[in-house]
Amino acid sequence: MRTGIVVVTLASALALSSCERAPADGTSETPEPAQTAAEAPSDIVAPAETRPEVPEAAGSPDLGYAGPIPKPIRVGTNGPDMDSCASYGEVSGLNPDGDNYLSVRDAPGGNVKERDRIGTGHKVHICAESDGWYGIVYDIEGDSGIDCEVDSPVDKPRNYTGPCAQGWVSKKFVTVTAG
Predict the structure, then answer these.
(1) How does 21-39 read in b/e, with b if 16+ C-beta sit within 10 Å?
(2) What are the residues facing 176 on neighbouring strands?
């Protein structure tokens, strides 16, 4: 009995794999390889992180990186009755004799790509926490009055796609001021 089940299972698997390789139109041509992300159809729009033009401060490095974030910031994880991001904070505790900036990274971790730098006093929305890191959403200019769209509830948790920047920072350099 077991041999019969194995034969039927093997035959089914072979038949299915042949179907997957066969073209949909019934011809014997080899199907085209799957589209890559770079060749995505133009009617599919992925949310892009927008970054307004900001004049650089003297000596500030041009990180030149506004690409996709590997570990996006999730908003709305505290339920539909709470603000999208539960807390608000301010960058503090930086060494003025050192670099005097806080690296904003693509994911929680000191060896992860740096996407931005923010200084002491910069206000941030704290939306997530992971292993000593905060997932933040912030106005690039610090407090230019841009609404980051995280002060209201959302129906269900989702990745942040609003008008402000996002990333991960070491939580030891952020003082929670609300929430």
Answers:
(1) eeeeeeeeeeeeeeeeeee
(2) 89
Location of structure tokens 């996006």: 72
Question: For residue 76, what are the contacts with CB-CB under 8 A and spacing of at least 6?
Answer: 84, 153, 154, 155, 156, 157, 158
Considering Cα of 111, then 115, then 118, then 122, what sign does the dihedral take? negative
pLDDT class for 126, splitting at 50, 70, 90? very high
pLDDT of 144 reads 78
Going by C-alpha positions, the residue among 40, 105, 116, 36 that lies closest to residue 71 is 105
Q: Report the chain's terminal Cα–Cα distance, integer Å.
A: 64
> Can you name the residues that pair with 133 across neighbouring β-strands?
130, 170
Residue 61 has pLDDT above 90, yes or no: no
Question: Taking Cα atoms as reference points, which of 87, 178, 79 lies closest to residue 127?
Answer: 87
The pair of structure tokens assigned to 71 is 């570990």
What DSSP character marks residue 26? S
Strand 174-178, strand 158-159: pairing: unpaired
Specify the pLDDT at position 41: 45
Q: How far is CA 6 from the centre of its chain?
A: 44
